[in-house]
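Why run this: before we spend reagent on co-expression, it is cheaper to look at a predicted model of the complex and decide which construct boundaries make sense. The entries below are exactly what would go into the expression plan.
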Amino acid sequence: MSDPRPIGLFDSGIGGLTVLREVQARLPAESTIYIGDSARHPYGTRSDAEVRRFSEELSDELVERGVKAMIVACNTATAVALEHLRERHPAIPIIGVIRPGAAAAALATRTGRVGVLATVATVRSRAYFAAIKDENPGTRVIERAASELVPLIESGLTSAREISDAIHAAVGPFLVGDPGARIDTLLLGCTHFPLIRGAIVEALGAPIAVVDSAVATASFLQEVIAVNGLETPGSSRGTAADAGHRGHTAPTSEPVAPVHQIFTTGDPVAVDALAVRLFGESAPRTRQITLGSNRR
Amino acid sequence: MSDPRPIGLFDSGIGGLTVLREVQARLPAESTIYIGDSARHPYGTRSDAEVRRFSEELSDELVERGVKAMIVACNTATAVALEHLRERHPAIPIIGVIRPGAAAAALATRTGRVGVLATVATVRSRAYFAAIKDENPGTRVIERAASELVPLIESGLTSAREISDAIHAAVGPFLVGDPGARIDTLLLGCTHFPLIRGAIVEALGAPIAVVDSAVATASFLQEVIAVNGLETPGSSRGTAADAGHRGHTAPTSEPVAPVHQIFTTGDPVAVDALAVRLFGESAPRTRQITLGSNRR
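The model came back. Tokens follow.
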């Protein structure tokens, strides 16, 4: 089996591009469609009902554009809306970023004390507490909200100096108290935060492992694509299987170069700046899109 | 590290004994304490608030008796109260039966269509839907409630003839419609149901894999015990590690024979009948216990 349709990803803004980068690295033959809802970011301080409605619109748009699988590349939307989206689109495998990130953190800790830096809505959901405890119920999970960092990152202020004070205020409480009782692993529970990873590591100023969900999520997607027979024709696995079934004759379907599309509900110029930083000059031009209720 | 304290398990009644059996098979050196709340069964048709309160009382009793880890050996209590109990007892690793069962079902299916037979409260929680989708989001999950089977099993009517009609009514809807669209795996989403597994397989009358969470849960417990350094002294892993650290001299702590205790809030004679069936004549005598609000 093989399936040339693209993989869809959405986020409240530009943070999910960190997940897209890992997806393209892991699955270079697959086409992708990314939608960032920068016009309505941040999600982390919105009500659950709003996040659910926006997530519906984004996922509907991706389904209309024919994706074969979807990543909710936003921790807040994963925490609040993942099951809802899975009920809404039963035929599409939908992956969130929380469980893969939780698994990475539970594996990384040696002392069994994991900190989670996330948005208010994600912390409120207790989704990371549940997911990390499911991986290893012996782990202590200390969650802290830092929603204020997201608009700074969205506006492009990602260098250490510009948001240094905000980052120090956010991670400071993880460093208080008896060193023996402190976390040894910090999970970046918002896909925007890897964009300021360097500044976070510097602010921690201690031997604390900093993990995020991008690599683990892309790795899980790869597994889901393989297990459900969704590889694109011409991808290494797909080609080998096709050739095998046909007695080593040439595959009928030629490998097709993957197509990558990036859409935003906000200002495409701002997204392009980050896309070029993450993907190089070959990054697709970001195009503006209007969604659901804003379309009318 | 090693830890001689017992492992605790609780259930709404006798169903969790199927999990206890697998725990003893996997971890023969570990002591166990089991409490079944048969006086207040079934949980599956109660409100979430009631299930949460009863689960608090059962878990508090196990913690007071000094357990080092706990299995919520009841699907309803896992679905409704697991995270609540983890917040209540942060120092004790607490394992539910839903995720291990979901993992077993997601691995077992070839067609990607899994049926779940559970109680009303478990189905209402959508916990199996979420857990199976987390394992493989490409799986279709069809849930059906069959709470009516639990009181029949609790009253000892487990032979095929006695509850045959009820079982046929419960599984019948899984067999309706186009055979190509039917489930190929049925997950027994209640720890009571493995006690009537034979009758369920017979009623299905089709090549459908029937899986339950007992083996997978015991296997996960074994991992949690090992990863968190909680093995009892004298268990095979514990002894080897101790000997290694001491240059192959004899371990200072002699292996101690495990102690198993079974308590019920209901009639001990009825529980004994099943315990002897599952564990043989060496089964510990079931003792009656009074919990929380009923204690006064």
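The CA atoms of residues 87 and 94 of chain B lie 10 Å apart. Confidence is low (pLDDT under 50) at residues 237-252 of chain B. Bring this page to Monday's planning discussion.
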